[in-house]
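About this split. The held-out portion is used to measure sequence recovery: a designer receives only the structure tokens and must propose an amino acid at every position. Recovery is the fraction of positions where the proposal matches the reference. Here is one held-out target exactly as it appears in the evaluation file.
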């Protein structure tokens, strides 16, 4: 029998960006909050002088142990799903701070078009523009309604940047100026302008200068060491939950964090969540934590899986299109970039996770899609994340993978390669979804999460279009040789692409086609909130974190309103 603990006001499942923001906002208002994190404790001191590419980038020290829990994957329903036994397409974080510790820091706002994608697409192009099986829908919230929460996240994190000329309207400037303009970023910017495009500095959670946020948290500027993604920041310059929101919650004395606590069920009775059941993985003990309000703030897969394991909400059925839990899984189309080989050399070893320049001319509906075989688009960027020695050895296409020519080209282009990448949107389809695997289980005997997903013609057309635009920019930059995508094959779970999984517990205006309302409140259980990229009905042409942060701040406001009034929020 599980050990039952005293009730708390709020229990949070997963202490990353979503959980940290919720904890900070609720404890400041006097609520007692317990945060359950299945990974280990983390602090900035853990990363002092630990620029260990092998440990973190190649052996995934900050990631989930796939031998204990993983996901299964199949391209379609006719194929048997198999477990992901080694990391490839995406990386699942683990530990206090979650993916917010080892992210790059690229912090965009989704476009107004994203939040009303169905209605705006039909209005401009007609219903026939949406292919059969594509299940895009409006989010039940507009950009203007979400804008104040974007601003709150950016002020808290100290985002460094400048407004996109083609982006959404802003109520305030970024709190800190853009990152450094390096020679290669200047090369991209000048070339883009000559092509009548609209480049701007990439919005960055790597501080461009020392900054103290509205909560009084002071952090120092980025040192451009080149160890951001897959690494914790030894300076605290990269905004992450451990150095921003979690300390604020702790200072109130009302936030208790329990690490090594793997939540396995949301407990509920008569349409109300009553708490959670978790296993202390250090002892194997099962523990029940009662709470007045339950908030799921873990990663996309675990948010969806917990609802399915707990029997909350109607599971999505791809055959009938009914149900909502597991619906509209999406990813990102990031294979539409190009690589240029130059005669001149660049200092590519230096950098930061979000040191870059980008443009939105081919993002959202900023361009005419009338004669194109896809909707939406993607951002196009060049970035200097720091080329570390083990993982970087780019040579022109056609070069042998061994021998004298390989060695010669490896040396020639070691510091003479620049990439212009695209981050393409991902539209949902009726046959792309998440559910529980009927065959494979984790170490506790619970079914694994199963992904059913593949690239569609929409993705192939989009990737080729964006790759062509990237190649044009590189040629204008002066690249002697340019390699670009010529064909997008089936989705490949083996090769890393991006950790931008979305959907499964999607947001909308009605319980008929969504799992949560625009306060992240579950339609079927009003004291249960689910926060994260699992709420996205589709994925945009940007990194998702800025939008996750905005939704978390809105959810915190909704939880406080529920505490005062009860019922579903409108």
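Reference sequence for scoring:
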């Amino acid at each position: 029998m599980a050990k039952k603990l005293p009730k708390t006001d709020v229990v949070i499942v997963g202490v990353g960006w979503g959980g940290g923001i919720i904890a900070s906002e609720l404890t400041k208002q006097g609520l007692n909050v317990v945060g359950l994190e299945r990974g280990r404790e983390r602090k900035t001191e853990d990363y002092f002088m630990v620029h260990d590419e092998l440990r973190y980038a190649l052996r995934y020290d900050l990631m989930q142990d796939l031998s204990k829990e993983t996901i299964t994957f199949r391209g379609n329903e006719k194929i048997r799903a198999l477990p992901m036994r080694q990391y490839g397409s995406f990386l699942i974080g683990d530990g206090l701070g979650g993916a917010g510790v080892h992210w790059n820091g690229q912090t965009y706002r989704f476009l107004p078009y994203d939040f009303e994608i169905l209605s705006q697409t039909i209005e401009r192009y007609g219903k026939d523009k949406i292919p059969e099986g594509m299940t895009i829908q409006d989010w039940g919230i507009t950009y203007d309604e979400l804008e104040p929460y974007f601003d709150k996240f950016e002020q808290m994190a100290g985002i460094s940047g400048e407004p996109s000329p083609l982006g959404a309207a802003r109520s305030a400037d970024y709190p800190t100026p853009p990152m450094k303009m390096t020679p290669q970023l200047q090369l991209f910017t000048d070339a883009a302008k000559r092509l009548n495009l609209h480049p701007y500095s990439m919005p960055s959670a790597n501080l461009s200068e020392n900054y103290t946020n509205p909560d009084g948290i002071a952090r120092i500027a980025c040192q451009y060491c080149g160890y951001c993604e897959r690494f914790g920041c030894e300076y605290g310059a990269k905004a992450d939950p451990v150095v921003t929101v979690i300390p604020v919650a702790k200072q109130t004395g009302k936030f208790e964090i329990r690490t090594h606590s793997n939540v396995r069920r949301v407990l509920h009775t008569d349409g109300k969540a009553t708490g959670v059941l978790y296993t202390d993985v250090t002892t194997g003990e099962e523990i029940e934590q009662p709470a007045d309000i339950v908030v799921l703030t873990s990663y996309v897969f675990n948010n969806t899986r917990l609802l399915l394991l707990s029997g909350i909400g109607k599971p999505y059925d791809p055959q009938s299109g009914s149900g909502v839990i597991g619906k509209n899984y999406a990813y990102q189309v990031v294979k539409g970039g190009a690589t240029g080989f130059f005669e001149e050399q660049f200092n590519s070893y230096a950098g930061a996770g979000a040191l870059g320049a980008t443009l939105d001319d081919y993002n959202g509906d900023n361009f005419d899609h009338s004669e194109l075989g896809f909707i939406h688009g993607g951002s196009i960027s060049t970035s200097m994340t720091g080329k570390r020695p083990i993982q970087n050895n780019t040579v022109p296409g056609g070069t042998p993978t061994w021998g004298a020519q390989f060695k010669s080209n490896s040396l020639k282009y070691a510091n003479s390669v620049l990439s212009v990448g695209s981050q393409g949107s991902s539209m949902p389809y009726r046959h792309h979804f998440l559910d529980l695997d009927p065959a494979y289980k984790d170490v506790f005997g619970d079914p694994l999460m199963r992904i059913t997903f593949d690239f569609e013609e929409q993705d192939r057309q989009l990737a080729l279009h964006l790759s062509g635009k990237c190649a044009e920019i590189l040629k204008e930059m002066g690249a002697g040789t340019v390699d670009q995508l010529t064909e997008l094959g089936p989705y490949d779970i083996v090769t890393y692409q991006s950790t931008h999984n979305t959907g499964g517990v999607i947001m909308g205006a009605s319980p008929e086609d969504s799992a949560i309302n625009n306060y992240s409140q579950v339609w079927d259980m009003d004291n249960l909130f689910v926060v994260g990229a699992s709420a996205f009905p589709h994925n945009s042409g940007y990194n998702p974190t800025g939008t996750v942060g905005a939704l978390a701040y809105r959810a915190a406001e909704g939880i406080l309103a529920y505490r005062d009034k009860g019922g579903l929020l409108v």
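Annotator remark: The longest strand covers residues 285-296.
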